[in-house]
């Protein structure tokens, strides 16, 4: 299995920091046919949380996202990396991106079984392009397979 490195569109918005607020947003998107692959929600203040979701595709899903107060996160560019989980792969990628002069605005990563998924938030389209190039080059060198 090889690695996939691509840019993804993320939608974001502020919601009330109350029980059920995130569930209402996700339920509305689900009812419109969304098949979400990425969700991050963080408390911003006592009353507000910020949610980031992807992908938001199709007319009905985009309308549901807009109705929930979400919009394309035009000031955030995100690179998604998927592939086999190998020991040190996160360090390999983040070091390569840093060496390319790209500052990360945010990062998420998870491993499920033998597969890893990492999302890197950067500040510009140029940074996303440079991060993708750096990640691809670093991944060609690889890492050690995780022993389980």
Blueprint of the fold:
Elements: E1 4-8, E2 11-16, H1 21-31, E3 38-43, E4 48-54, H2 59-67, E5 71-72, E6 77-84, E7 86-87, H3 89-99, E8 104-112, E9 115-122, H4 125-141, E10 144-145
Antiparallel strand pairs: 1-6, 2-4, 2-5, 3-4, 6-9, 7-10, 8-9
Describe this structure in words.
The two termini are 18 Å apart. Helix 3 packs across helix 4. The chain is α+β, with helices and mostly antiparallel strands and 148 residues long. The chain is built from four helices and ten strands. The strands form three sheets. It has a four-stranded antiparallel beta sheet with strand order 1-6-9-8, with helices on one face. The chain is 32% helix and 37% strand. The radius of gyration is 16 Å and the shape is elongated. The protein folds into two domains: 63 residues, Alpha-Beta Plaits, CATH 3.30.70; 71 residues, ACT domain (Alpha-Beta Plaits, 2-Layer Sandwich).
Brief digest:
The protein has 148 residues and is an alpha+beta fold.
Principal-axes geometry comes out as elongated
Strand neighbour order, sheet with most strands: 1-6-9-8
Largest sheet: 4 strands, antiparallel
Any guess at the CATH architecture of the largest domain?
2-Layer Sandwich
Query: How many H/I helices?
Result: 4
* E-strand count: 10
Helix % is: 25-40%
**What's the overall average pLDDT, rounded?**
93
Strand content: 35-45%
| Structural domain tally | 2
Question: What is the alpha-carbon Rg in Å?
Answer: 16 Å
Helical/strand content category: alpha+beta
Which regions are unreliable across 5 or more consecutive residues at pLDDT < 50?
Answer: 144-148
What is the CATH homology-level superfamily of the largest domain? Answer: ACT domain
Distance between the termini: 18 Å
**Oligomerization:** single chain
């Amino acid at each position: 299995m090889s690695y996939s490195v691509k840019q993804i569109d993320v939608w974001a918005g502020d919601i009330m920091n109350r029980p059920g607020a995130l569930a209402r947003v996700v339920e509305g998107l689900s009812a419109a046919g969304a098949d979400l692959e990425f969700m991050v929600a963080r408390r911003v203040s006592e009353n507000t949380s910020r949610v980031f979701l992807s992908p938001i595709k199709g007319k009905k899903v985009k309308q549901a996202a807009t109705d929930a107060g979400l919009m394309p996160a035009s000031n955030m560019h995100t690179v998604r990396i998927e592939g086999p989980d190998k020991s040190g792969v996160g360090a390999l990628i983040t070091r390569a991106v840093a060496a390319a002069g790209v500052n990360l605005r945010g990062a998420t990563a998870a491993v499920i079984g033998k597969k890893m998924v990492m999302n890197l938030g950067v500040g510009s389209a140029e940074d996303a392009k440079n991060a993708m190039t750096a990640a691809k080059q670093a991944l060609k060198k690889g890492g050690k397979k995780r022993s389980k």
